[in-house]
Amino acid sequence: MSKAKLVAILLYSIVVLITAGAGLQFMTATQYFDYHAQASGLDWYSLNPDLQMLILAGFKVTGSGFLTVALSLSLIIIFSFTKHAESWSDVAIPLVGLVFWSVVLSTTLMVFSATGAAAPWGTSLFCVIALLVGLFISQRELKQTETSN
What we know:
It contains 5 helices and no strands. With 149 residues, it is mostly helical.
């Protein structure tokens, strides 16, 4: 396996770890995050208990989405990108990640711009950039391989 492929795998793996970590944060949260309080102007404990329950239920669904994306990316990396060197995985990994992380990025930027709350858009931007760099590396290597054959 080439150094370029290893760099792409490393970038994708970092995105997987960030995605899984965010999923676990949402799944285990007992209240909303500080930036949610900043954005809403409401302390968690001032919310009606039924609203708290609905927010935490939404967090569980959100967390499961993050974990599903992390699992999907992991499986593609492990079974296609590394072992069988399937060319479709060169595109599938970043596309799955980009669909997810671009929505997360646009949403956190929307919260930040509308409220000034410290929404974690920087992490989302990092993941988008890492996925794009990995895609660029993979596609560049694929073209080099095709021209040398």
